[in-house]
Amino acid sequence: MLNRYPLWKYLLILIVLVVGLIYALPNLYPEDPAVQISSSRSNVTLDESRLDRLRNALDEAGIDIKGIDPQANGALIRLTDADEQLEARNIVNETLGDEFTVALNLAESTPAWLESLGAAPMNLGLDLRGGVHFALEVDMEAALTQRLEVNASAMRESLRDERIRYRDTTVEGRTLTLTFASEEDRSEARNIIRREFPDFQYENRDAGRGAVLAMTLTEQQVSEIQDYAINQNLTTLRNRVNELGVAEPLVQRQGPSRIVVELPGVQDTAAAKRVVGATANLEFRLEARPDTPANETETLPFRNNENRTAELMRDVIITGDSVSSASRSFDENGRPQVNINLDGTGGTLMNRATRSNIGRSMAVIYIDNQTRTRTVMKDGEQVEERIPYTERGIISLATIQSALGNSFRITGLDSPTEAEELALLLRSGSLAAPIYFVAERTIGPSLGKANIEQGILSVEIGMLLVVAFMLIRYKAFGVVANLALVTNLVLLLAALSMLGATLTLPGIAGIVLTLGMAVDANVLIFERIREELRARMPIQQAIHAGYERAFTSIIDGNLTTLLVAVILFSIGTGPVKGFAVTLSLGILTSMFTGILVSRAMVNLTIGGKPIKKLWI
């Protein structure tokens, strides 16, 4: 019989619609503006008396509380108005003091039964949810200097193994120089170093009573080091952002030496900037013996007491690059510490160094690359000049009791927050070169709210216009097309939510375009039915022919558009990808609803029934 589906097709369509409705529902529950409170110390808890003080303080300030969710080491205060977040955070800070860390947050409000099914709302991009945009500059010259320092340390070790004496090592620009007592020592050292480091241009220089070997990086090696620096920094920043738990962040290269970072939903910009822009690293060095030559030692202060110093070896055992995992905890006295696991190479180097130096002290050095900005006159104009500098301080200096392996701990940290951030930085990896903030833009939640409202309005207007046109043009069949259009919108939202895609303003534009294109299939089908009716074909046969003969045209038209969307996604970035994702998903859902769902509704209402006149 014409215009009848088998039962399994109806069941399949019903299952898809039910699943789509369930996974689209969380988008009706927007996130609540909230204030996150967490304890700074393990022995301090947010008890009921403190919560009562918070409620009274917020009530006195006229701030409405939607609810308070107790958590393991603090609480989450949900608010009704995003404009009151900053004021609420300040009040909470004043009420609780330094024992707690207070930050802005956005809390999900999805019902528990939907969460149990894995349903969650769409991620919103920076332009809709608010957040921060950073532009970072990678210091390429510092990358070269760091590589030369590593090479210098390796060269010194090789020379000591071969018992070749040297006086001094200096790094200036792209050149590393070694000073020797005689030309014979220099000649022998040059032969040894050249085998291990072929990427230098070697030159012998005279220096009064000594002999100098100058090694300059080749242009190819400089280019490779700089490319490695920015690619390594990209990887490290992505790891750091992932540790922050930001949904769908953007971390990408911009030009030869810049990196762009966008963090949707982040409102505690100071904390985000501190973690993203941190250039900290660790070095592990042995304390110098009294008879160690002065050119092989370096005096460094302690971080928590600059008046106290220690004489350390210049050679580095390992750096933070060898750390495979790190976590914060507390020692037996309740002081913060960082538990560290090393990779295979790092564990071997640490074991080798400590096994032969039991009873000797080893220092953990915290290194932070910073920059100062000053205003100078250049070509008659005032410009800002960045002056990079490096701070080094000893975290701890402890005696080696036994040979260390892949696991040990770092103590001597000032606070749990510092320990947590240090563990985060070590887990995510160290930067290959310092980075500096050159631009910072904050998009507030109020602006994001306005964008969402305007985007929803555009969808509503577009949908109303399409609905009106279909009703006027196709009458009863227009109702079928409009129901299929609503179904298409629900399925599109469900698909975006299930895939964890990020919705941006261009993505909303893709949804609006999809709504306009979604009825194309029905227009082709209905126009084909009209042609068959004008050719005096029976009504049921005309309906069947309309769906069957328009199918090829619908597939061809949508596939070409889908191909363009795939190309946009593959070569585009940021907003272009967001547009391509919503357009691609919209094409797939519109084909499903325009062909299968609309025909199922027609089959259920008039399929196989004797009809004298068709309102189309």
From TrEMBL:
Topology of the protein relative to the lipid bilayer: Multi-pass membrane protein
Residues of the Protein translocase subunit SecDF P1 domain: 230-287
Functional description taken from the UniProt entry: Part of the Sec protein translocase complex. Interacts with the SecYEG preprotein conducting channel. SecDF uses the proton motive force (PMF) to complete protein translocation after the ATP-dependent function of SecA.
Residue ranges annotated for the Protein export membrane protein SecD/SecF C-terminal domain, each copy included: 439-602
Self-association state and partner proteins as the record states: Forms a complex with SecF. Part of the essential Sec protein translocation apparatus which comprises SecA, SecYEG and auxiliary proteins SecDF-YajC and YidC.
GO molecular function, a single term: protein-transporting ATPase activity
GO BP, sorted A to Z: intracellular protein transmembrane transport; protein targeting; protein transport by the Sec complex
Parts of the chain that traverse the membrane: 7-25, 455-472, 479-501, 507-529, 550-572, 578-602
Domain SecDF P1 head subdomain: 298-433
Domain of life of the source: Bacteria
Family label: Belongs to the SecD/SecF family. SecD subfamily.
Protein name: Protein translocase subunit SecD
InterPro entries: SecD, SecD-TM, SecD/SecF_arch_bac, SecD/SecF_CS, SecD_1st, SecD_SecF_C, SecD_SecF_C_bact, SecDF_P1_head
Keywords: Cell membrane, Membrane, Protein transport, Translocation, Transmembrane, Transmembrane helix, Transport
Residues in SecD export protein N-terminal TM domain copies: 2-104
